[in-house]
Amino acid sequence: MDKPFFYDITLRDGNQSLKKPWQLSEKQFIFEKLKELNVQAVEVGFPASSHMDFQSCSALADMAWDNLVVSALARTVQKDIDSAIDSIGHAKIPRIHTFLTLSPFHMKYVLNKEPHYCAKKAIEAVEYAYSSVKKINKNAQVQFSVEHFGDCIENLDFVIGTLKKIVKAGASVINLPNTVERTRPKTFINMIEKVKESLPDDVIISLHNHNDLGMATATTVEGYFAGAIQLECCLNGLGERAGNTDFAQVAVALHNNGVEVPVNLDKIYETAMIISQMSNVSIYEKAPLVGPEALAHRSGIHQDGAIKTKDMEFGAYRPIHPSLIGRGNDEKIEFTSQSGKTAIFEIINNAGYPITINEAICLTPVVKEVSEVKGELSVDEILEIYFREIFDIKGAFELVSFKHLAGDKFKLDFKFKDELKEVEGSGNGPLDACLDALKNAGFPRKLSHYKQYALDEDKMGSGATAMSVIKLVGKNGEEIIGRATDKNTAKANVKAIFNALNQVYK
Questions:
Q1: Which of 32, 53, 278, 487 sits at a 20 to 30 Å CA gap from 344?
Q2: What domains are defined for the chain?
């Protein structure tokens, strides 16, 4: 099967649907972005629609790179075709794209013309376009579109018979638009296959699908496998009404199905952001691939799978690795009442704070309770709970003071079950001295781990700049993690010991 041929319609269909159509300088900028994407054809506009559009088409034809097909739209009337030829005929590979409906509904109720009249007009227009453009450019091509092809089920044999004559008249590309999406993709695909089988093998079958029922991408992808090689797509799915087939979705879907896509996929995300800004059409948050929420996970089950596969090409709950389309690896783990321990562990860990999975399990019901009232919680809100529940553990011990006496000697004052104890201890630094003092008071504990972190800001509101994490050996040999923060490093160490003690002596 031939590679897909991407025919971009952003500058024509996309532009004509905007509340504020683009000026020439904006079109030129977008044209360069299409070059970076490596599209194979660009429909630059409808030259006969206005003097401004004529000039834009001509200017963009001047900018065309090697092997790019530059297409311009024209109705099946001589002045439109002449205008299209005059505007883009000098391009390296110009294509005149003319169109007319052959749909029974449209011929009767919109054009008020008989089928034989429309067929004759279409054939004559293609003959004129082919003979005229070939005189000035031997590389020129002619494309014909059956407007409202999706509505041609009942007269498909008539349409095919007309298309055979249109091909003989000079059209090398036959475009089959789902101008208004009304039927299921399979019905439309069956029609495409019948046309494909009926025309010469060298005729290129093209698709131009609108998204009225939200199935344009599916229809286009399946259409490719049915033999429609040219795929008319629009950046960000811009276009009339619900828009045209989305360029990125089609390209990535084909890639995921083993098709060699001749497009620079890594430019997709950047281009989508630019087009959104320039069109003033925001990308809705759940938009596939490029939406702000396209990589967000809130369900606990989804979060667990996403985290376990976050470094793999295909994630448990994502179709591609974000880097494929030039997007940062920004899978988001958000917390709501539907989330679980994995989310808490990942959010706190990603924020730069130590936490164990067992601590995350203990925090889960507390955080869920808050989320049930507030909804989705921010990182800061989760950290606030983390510090309150993990750092401010109430128990039998209460640190009163810890003072350096002289040399390696320190004085420790603390309460145990409200009974004040004043003891001294010595050691190689405050940690050793504190543990020695506790031993002297009848509470011997062994330190198995110690680490200190510098904090960028105080999440607890106390002006803390250091966080100590220690591990004490518990009564049964288990490790008890103690944590604390303080401006003073020595005090942070001691507070961490008491944090652990309150877990041992509850």
A1: 487
A2: 5-263 (3.20.20.70), 296-390 (no CATH), 397-504 (3.30.160.270)
